[in-house]
Design goal:
Order of helices and strands: HHHHHHHHHHHH
Number of strands: 0
Strand content: under 5%
Length: 322
């Protein structure tokens, strides 16, 4: 029993497909779109001489473009995540990217494997779609994590602005100018929309729903209630900032407590597969004497079932909601 080298080639081709997506993205849009950039993109566009209305239209178009194509069967798989990641590629460009990656995968599998043409074509198509999906999913997770980290500081800045006498719309403008992206451009869009007459509470609600973030929903509700019933918005937002920080503190504490269990689960799940790989590399004929026995296949299925149950149970034990 030996592992087919073609399986390793499949994995290498898939990793190459994901890296190719990132390379093309950075080549086309530059490092200013990268999650590692600290540039406030909205201010950068304004400094280049673009008008405030044109910048607002451009940013709103980028923030809403993916949900408009949610009805496309293939694209609906990643429309929500592409929206959260604020991918600068248009939906049409992403669909074209899937096709290009499928062709690249097909070429790689053609020269690296001897898979049948029909199967090779199907695997290439799956790699093209899956490569874009995993890339967008990673971008979305990173961007939402960055916004969650920036939100308490942004709320504190709003509180300080309100306490010195600025109106809430001016506080939003200050936040959009002082904090880095990705939160700065999001708040900047709300500030510009408010300047053109849109209700701030509604704009915050739309942002919270688009990003699917609970802390932003709290912020939107707090602002909406204050608009309708009055009250000291600075104190309300100060309390909200304390709640958000407390949730982060509790989340990090839970993460630290469950870290050992998570790594233990990963080790217990990956060790059998790693051992199987090492055995097949060092002694490819190790299982030859038992492969022909009637219990070999049932035993393999039982082991696979136990491994699957192990992964599910370990994830359930350490998946603590905060």
């Amino acid at each position: 029993m030996s592992i087919d080298p073609e399986l390793i080639i499949y994995g290498l081709v898939f990793i190459g497909v994901i890296l190719l997506v990132e390379g093309i993205y950075l080549t086309v849009f530059g490092k200013s779109i990268s999650l590692n950039s600290k540039v406030n993109r909205r201010l950068e566009m304004l400094e280049k001489g673009e008008g405030r209305e044109q910048v607002l239209d451009q940013l709103r178009k980028e923030m809403e473009q993916h949900l408009k194509f949610n009805s496309i069967p293939l694209y609906s798989l990643l429309a929500q995540k592409a929206q959260k990641a604020n991918i600068a590629f248009t939906p049409v460009q992403l669909l074209m990217m899937m096709g290009v990656l499928a062709v690249v995968a097909w070429v790689g599998l053609t020269f690296g494997t001897s898979t049948a043409p029909g199967l090779r074509l199907g695997i290439s198509a799956i790699m093209g779609v899956a490569g874009v999906y995993f890339w967008i999913n990673g971008k979305a997770k990173k961007r939402l994590a960055m916004i969650e980290e920036q939100l308490p500081e942004a709320v504190d800045l709003m509180v300080r602005s309100l306490r010195v006498g600025h109106p809430f719309t001016s506080a939003l403008t200050i936040v959009s100018n002082e904090v880095p992206d990705p939160l700065a451009s999001e708040i900047g869009v709300i500030s510009d929309e408010a300047a053109y007459g849109r209700d701030v509470g509604d704009a915050l609600k739309d942002m919270a729903e688009r990003l699917d973030m609970q802390d932003l929903r709290f912020l939107a509700v707090a602002v909406t209630i204050q608009q309708q019933a009055g009250g000291n918005l600075a104190e309300i937002l100060h309390g909200l900032s304390l709640v958000i920080r407390s949730r982060f503190k509790l989340f990090r504490r839970v993460k630290a407590i469950t870290a050992e269990a998570k790594w233990s689960g990963m080790f217990l799940s990956g060790f059998p597969l790693g051992a199987l790989l090492v055995i097949n590399i060092l002694k490819p004929d190790y299982y030859d004497e038992v492969m022909d026995t009637p219990v070999f296949i049932p035993a393999c299925l039982v082991v696979a079932a136990f491994l699957t149950v192990n992964v599910i149970v370990m994830r359930a034990l350490v998946d603590i909601k905060v």
